[in-house]
TrEMBL record:
<dbReference type="GO" id="GO:0016174">
    <property type="term" value="F:NAD(P)H oxidase H2O2-forming activity"/>
</dbReference>
<dbReference type="InterPro" id="IPR017927">
    <property type="entry name" value="FAD-bd_FR_type"/>
</dbReference>
<dbReference type="GO" id="GO:0042554">
    <property type="term" value="P:superoxide anion generation"/>
</dbReference>
<feature type="transmembrane region" description="Helical">
    <location>
        <begin position="139"/>
        <end position="158"/>
    </location>
</feature>
<keyword id="KW-1133">Transmembrane helix</keyword>
<dbReference type="InterPro" id="IPR013130">
    <property type="entry name" value="Fe3_Rdtase_TM_dom"/>
</dbReference>
<feature type="domain" description="FAD-binding FR-type">
    <location>
        <begin position="258"/>
        <end position="373"/>
    </location>
</feature>
<feature type="transmembrane region" description="Helical">
    <location>
        <begin position="102"/>
        <end position="127"/>
    </location>
</feature>
<keyword id="KW-1015">Disulfide bond</keyword>
<keyword id="KW-0472">Membrane</keyword>
<dbReference type="GO" id="GO:0006952">
    <property type="term" value="P:defense response"/>
</dbReference>
<dbReference type="InterPro" id="IPR017938">
    <property type="entry name" value="Riboflavin_synthase-like_b-brl"/>
</dbReference>
<keyword id="KW-0963">Cytoplasm</keyword>
<dbReference type="InterPro" id="IPR039261">
    <property type="entry name" value="FNR_nucleotide-bd"/>
</dbReference>
<keyword id="KW-0521">NADP</keyword>
<keyword id="KW-0256">Endoplasmic reticulum</keyword>
<dbReference type="GO" id="GO:0005634">
    <property type="term" value="C:nucleus"/>
</dbReference>
Amino acid sequence: LGLCVSRASASVLNLNCCLALLPMCRVLLAFLRGSQKVASRKTRRLLDKSKTFHVTCGVTICIFSVLHVAAHLVNALNFSENYNEDFLSLNAANYRGEVSRLYLMSVLVPGLTGVIMVLVLFLMCTASTYAIRVSNYDIFWYTHNLFFVFYMLLMLHVSGGVLKYQTNLEEHPPGCFNPNKTLRDNVTVPKAFEETFPDYTTEPFPEDLPVPEPFVQNNFMRICSEEPKFQSHFPETWFWISGPLCLYCVERLYRYIRSNKPVTITSVISHPSNVLEVRMMKDDFKARPGQYVILHCPRVSALESHPFTLTMCPTDTKATFGVHLKVVGDWTERFRDLLLLHSNQDTEILPIFQQRRYPKLYVDGPFGSPFEESLNYEVSLCVAGGIGVTPFASVLNTLLDGWKCYKLRRLYFIWVCRDIESFRWFADLLCMLHNKLWQENRPDYINIQLYLSQTDGIQKIIGEKYQALNSRLLIGRPRWKLLFDEIAKCNRRNTIGVFCCGPNKISKILHKLSNRSNSYGTRFEYNKESFS
C-alpha cells in the first residue's frame, strides 16, 4: 500500500508541477488573450483565471507532497521488515531491521533532495499566505523565486532508482522452479513433488533427474532458465517537467532581452492621497488599453519588481505611456523618493538633458488582463474602488482619442472613493471625455457615477472646473442590486460585461449579482482584475 500511495502521489505531483508553470508564461497568455482567431471570448475569460489555477496547483502540490512523504516513511519500515534474501538487488536496506538509514536517505540522492525540497516547499507555502504578502511582500517575492531550486532538485530526486522491475520475465517468470537452488529454502514444495521424492533433502537438485510429468502438466511450477535480472525504472518526471520548464526559461530570456533597455521618463506627477504618476517613452512599445507592465528599478531593489496597470497607452500620434502607483509599501516609498529627490514641486516636466539624475527604470511587458475585453462588449459596466480605477483610465483615454472603431456602444462607469481628493486623479480626463461626447451628440455613451463616503471639502474641490462631475457625485455607497436591475432593464436581452478592480467585498457582491438571473433576459459576464 505504501508503494501504491507514493507512486500515485508522485504522478499527481508530476502533473501539477508541470501545470503550475504554464500560468506564469505571461507572454504566451498575452498572445492568446489578444488573438481573436486563436482564442474566443470564453477561452480568454478562462485565461483570466490563470492566477487561481496557479494557486490551485500550488495547494495540490503541498497536499500531495505531505502524502508522498508519509508514504515513503511507511515504505522505509516495509523495506526494513521485508528484507528479501533471495533477490538482494531489490533491497533498499543493507540488512533486515536497518531503519535509521532508510528514514534519512534510503538512497543518498533521493533522500537529500527530498528533504531539501520539503524545506523549500514549506518556505514557499508559508510565505504565500495573505498575511505575509500584505505585511512584507519582499518575503513572498524572494521565497517564491526558490521555485527554480525546487525544480532542479526535483530533476535529481528521481535519479536514485529505488524501485526496479524485472527485465527477463520470459527466462525467469515469477514463481518459477530453479533446479540449481535449494527447493525448501526458496519455494513451497508441492505435495506431488514430496510424494515422488520422499527422500529429497536440501541438497542441490540433480541436473540429470527429470521433473515428474504430472508436476509439469498441472502447471505446479515452471522451470527457470536463468537468474532474475532487475533494472531501475526510467524517471518519468523529466517528461512532465522539461517541456514547461524550458518554455518558461525561454520566455524569461525573451522578456529579459525585451526589457533590457531602460525607458525615458518624461514626467513625474505627485497626486493627492499618496499617488504618483510616471509618464515614460520607449522605442517600439505597443500596448492595448487594460494591459499592465512590470516595473524594475535596480536602485530600489536589485531583484524585486512590481506590476502596474497602464493608465495611458501609446497611440499612433503619441508615444507616451504612463502608470499611476499608490505609495503603500517599502518599494513604492523608495521609488517615489528617488523620482522626487530633486523636485520640491508636485509636478515636474523633465527636459531630455536632465534624464541622467533620475534612476534607471526598466519596463517588462505589456501583459494582458481581463479589461482588454471591456471594449469588445456592446455594453460594459466598469466598477472601480479607489486606486482600482487605473485599468479603466487607459480605457477612458482610448475612448478620448476615438470610440467609433470599437464595438462598445454604452459604458457604465462607477467609481467609489473614501475621500474627495482621490477624484482629482482622473477628474480632468472624465471632464474632457464628457465634453467630447456632448459635442459629438452622444451624451448617453458613458454613464458616470461617483460615490463618496466622506463629505468634507466637496465645495472646495468640486467647483466650476469640474462642473460636469457635480451632478454625478453621490454620497454613500452604491445600491448594487438596484443598479443591476436598472442596467438590465435598459439593456434587455443583451450581454453586459462586468469589470471590477477594487476591494474583495465589492468584487464578491458584483460576482454574485452577475450570476443572478433577471426577468429582462439580460446576461452579465463577470470579470475581475488579477495580476498573474
